[in-house]
Structures are given as structure tokens and as C-alpha cells.
Amino acid sequence: MTELVIDIAFGRLAAKAWGDPANPPMLALHGWLDNAASFAGLAPLLAENYIVALDFAGHGRSDHRAPGNWYHHVDHVSDVLEVVNQLGWLKFSLLGHSMGASIASIFAAAVPERVERLLLIEGLGPPTAEQDQTVAQLQRALLQRESAAAKTLRVFPDIETAIEARIKANGLSRQAAELLVERGIKSVEGGFSWSSDSRLMLASPLRYSESQILAILRGIRAPIVLVMADPPMPYFKAEIMQARIAAVENIRVIHVPGSHHLHLEQPAQVAPLLR
């Protein structure tokens, strides 16, 4: 494993890399409030590829966006394009978990000639909102943003307390929580705090409609493997997921007993499915 720093227009993105750079390239995209360590167990088991796992903007060890900016899905998609251009990858595979799977889905539709394979875990497109929720969503986001300056991230007296908080929040095993916390924490006065940008917790001002996402998914040309946890997570409505799966041409769906972070908790079980 090696550490990378990739300079793009807004600032610096950190990444972890595994494997031989001469192997077929794969970019790994983590979930919301996670970081590149999310793939620490899985990436070494996909040794036939050269895998670069990114810390999204505002996550892990990457820079935060400048004051006054939002964290839009489309901005992450643009960052991914800059990253692969900086790496010199003309064609590559995308591996995404949760939010990372959403961003990978949009990217694969927007730049289909660049994506060879799409490997998705617990995600196929982002959350959406009904049209009649548009104004309420915008109002909520603006109110949150207005009051965000007065809020500060929690300070933990020691790393162990931070690990326990992550276990409680996500139901992770201790080993999984340790991996994410080690990369997602920083030393501050009085102890430790998350290194992620607190603005990531704010509501999005705009969300896609479900019809827009279906149109985007129809633009994907790469073959897809979608691995979903069984039982399904409550935020994946069965009827919506089935409609999204039906919208893409070449997809294989695999259900695996486990939790939302099954790639982190059960890498030896997930890796062969992705191969």
C-alpha cells in the first residue's frame, strides 16, 4: 500500500493505492463520512488490478472545499474526472460503496467511454426527492447552512472514545471502526476530532428526481456487478431499487448476508463476487 496526493482544481485529494501500477487500473470510491480505508481489506484481494482508493473532498485526509461552497454530488463527479486525468488513465474500472457507488453510477453514464467495469456495493444512483419536496428541501438546506457556522465538531478525549462512537453510529465491528477512525481523525486542542468537513452533515439544497436518475442510469454502457446486503437496508426501497436495476442493460445483482459495510466487514466473501 502506498499513499498518494493528487492535485486538482479545488485543492488536494489524498488516496491509498494497492498493487502494481502496470495492472489494469481501478478507482475505488468510499461512502459518505467514510474514507479510503474503507477498502483496506478488499483491495489487496483484488490484486489483478492497480487500485487507487480516493478520500473524497472533505473526507479523510483530503482538503475541504473553500468556505461558501456546498458538497454537491456533481462536484464529486467532476473531481473523479480530474483525478483519473491526473493519473493518466484513459480507461479504467470503478468500484464504489454507498455514496461512492452513487457517484460511480453518475460518472459511468456521463463519461461512458472511459469506464470499463462498474463494481457497486450497496448503491445504484443517489437518494432522490419528489418534485413537490423541492422547496422544502431548499429551505431546510439554507436554514442549516445559516446556522452551521456556530457549530463545532465533537472533541473526543482519546482515540478509543472516537472508535466507540463510530461503532455505535454504524454498528461496525471494532476492526472496521479502527480502520476508518485512524484515517478520519485529527489532533485538536483537548483531544481528537473528525477530520471530515462538518458541512457534509448539511442537507443538500437540490436533489435529483427519480425520473432523472433513471435517465442517467440508462446512459451506463459498462457491465455492472451490484452487491447488496441481505437483509436490505431500510433506506433502499425495494420498488425504487428494482426500477433502477431494470433501467440498466448489463447488470448482475448479488445479495450477500451482511450489513451496509459488508465490503469492509467481509472482504474475503465480497472479493470473489467482484472478480
TrEMBL record:
A GO MF term: hydrolase activity
Pfam families: Abhydrolase_1
Top-level taxon: Bacteria
SUPFAM superfamilies assigned: alpha/beta-Hydrolases (SSF53474)
Domain AB hydrolase-1: 24-157
InterPro entries on file: AB_hydrolase_1, AB_hydrolase_fold, AB_hydrolase_sf
Any one annotated GO CC term: membrane
Keyword list, A-Z: Hydrolase
Entry keyword Hydrolase: yes
Gene3D superfamilies (alphabetical): alpha/beta hydrolase
UniProt record similarity statement: Belongs to the AB hydrolase superfamily.
Protein name: Alpha/beta hydrolase
Organism from which the protein derives: Pseudolysobacter antarcticus
